[in-house]
Amino acid sequence: MVTISQLYLEAKNRLRITEDEETAGLMARNLLCYATGERYETLLAMGQSKVSDKAYDTMQRALYRVQTGEPLAYIIGEWDFYGMTLQVTKDVLIPRDDTCAVVGLAINQALYLKESPRILDLCTGSGCIGLAIATRVKDARVTLADVSRDAIAVARRNISSQKLSSRVSCVSVDALQTPPAFLGKFDMIVSNPPYITTEEMRQLPKSVKDFEPEPALHGGEDGLVFYRAIAENYYNVIKPGGYLCFEFGMGQGDDVCRILETNGYTILERTRDYNDIERAVIAQTARKEF
Q: Could you tell me the end-to-end alpha-carbon distance of the chain, in angstroms, rounded to an integer?
């Protein structure tokens, strides 16, 4: 039997074949927590303790899955985003730091909305955007919407784990179709819709193409199908003077803004992600209904 420290070093060395030193260390740490069921702080004090056969076998299987290209998040079943640990499955995209750009835009505006604003997270997936907003805007009433019932199931579990059931709910909605009347009106809609073009889908890395859900990635031939549908169909779902926030792919900013302006929105701000890539926009509807 090996010790916890020995198993960590074994995993790190195997991961260094494809990862840099820091990434290999972080991945080995996460896998060790997953295999043992212990928090990292606990494992630090147990370095010389023997690893159970079950934990050792779990670690070996997990390492094999990583080395065959499966994303770490799907193996351990959770991922950290905006200060939350969220459940993820292969039914939803893995939350990425890129998405913090649109979350930041939405939160900064939502903090100035009237009391108890209604906010819709459209194409929600794991619920990461809407839940991040709900944790920062303490009186917001947030609705998480997705066409995938499996994604909605994941989002519901994340609502529960974040203890936000009193202010956050889920509905099944197809963002490409006319919005159902039961939705009502919102002060803000936020969306990270599918935006990968047909050509880009063919070139995706194995870890994305073979494991993440294709319907949550593919945005049509030019990647803009969802932007056109949401900007047009959801304009009247937003209250007069309300806001629409979009995340978009690299190089899509001008096209997305043209779509918004064509549909009567006023562009307020465009922003970049942590890698200095333009990633999100917030726009406003007219202040009066016509």
A: 74
Amino acid letter for position 97: D
What pLDDT score was predicted for residue 119?
98
What pLDDT score does 91 carry? 97
**CB atoms closer than 10 angstroms to residue 161:** 14
Contact yes or no for 186/144 (Cβ under 8 A): no
How much is the pLDDT for 289?
59
Q: Reduce the secondary structure of the chain to three states and give it as a string.
A: CCEHHHHHHHHHHHHCCCCCHHHHHHHHHHHHHHHHCCCHHHHHCCCCCECCHHHHHHHHHHHHHHHCCCCHHHHHCEEEECCEEEECCCCCCCCCHHHHHHHHHHHHHHCCCCCCCEEEEECCCCCHHHHHHHHHCCCCEEEEEECCHHHHHHHHHHHHHCCCCCCEEEEECCCCCCCCHHHCCEEEEEECCCCECHHHHHCCCHHHHCCCCHHHCECCCCCCHHHHHHHHHCHHHEEEEEEEEEECCCCCHHHHHHHHHHCCCEEEEEEECCCCCEEEEEEECCCCCC
Across the strands, what pairs with 218?
196
**pLDDT tens-digit profile of 217-242?**
999 999 999 999 999 999 999 999 99
Please write the tens of the pLDDT for every residue from 6-47.
999 999 999 999 899 999 999 999 999 999 999 888 888 888
Enter the tokens of residue 185: 């009106």
pLDDT of residue 1: 78
Separation CA 121–CA 41 (nearest Å): 34
Residue ranges of the chain with per-residue pLDDT less than 70: 288-290
Q: Is-contact 218 143, C-beta < 8 A? A: no
